[in-house]
Amino acid sequence: PIEARYKFPIHEAAAVCGFEADIDGQRKVKGIVKEAKKAAKEYTEAIEKGHGAYLLESESADVFQCSIGNITSGQTIVVKITYVSELKHDSETEKIRFVLPTYIAPRYGSSTSTSSSADDGKILEPDAVLYSEEANFYLDLTVT
């Protein structure tokens, strides 16, 4: 089994409100909010016991990391992350604008890889990700 880690950008004013993993289309795991150290400990313990493990954590205000442990050969895992963010008004076009960040800019002092030699090549951190695009938008508007 391997562990996969995926970092993704999010608008710094957005709030994550849902995390779900679909395993082979047959089982769903829903995330719950826990204190960071406790969640990391439970994740590590699940990996050590050979169970599937799922962790979503905030690396900074605008970068999250999703870790999935004990992925077996041929297994398909689809991750769904739900977040809320205020839509901005574009004064030039007089329209509402939604921005979907797709790139994490290099940070001063950051390394190119977070894997260590102790990982024994069992952690997968992709350099490039092929995106499939699906956009579902819902608008709940209250005018007072």
From TrEMBL:
<dbReference type="InterPro" id="IPR013694">
    <property type="entry name" value="VIT"/>
</dbReference>
<dbReference type="Pfam" id="PF08487">
    <property type="entry name" value="VIT"/>
</dbReference>
<protein>
    <recommendedName>
        <fullName>VIT domain-containing protein</fullName>
    </recommendedName>
</protein>
<feature type="domain" description="VIT">
    <location>
        <begin position="1"/>
        <end position="85"/>
    </location>
</feature>
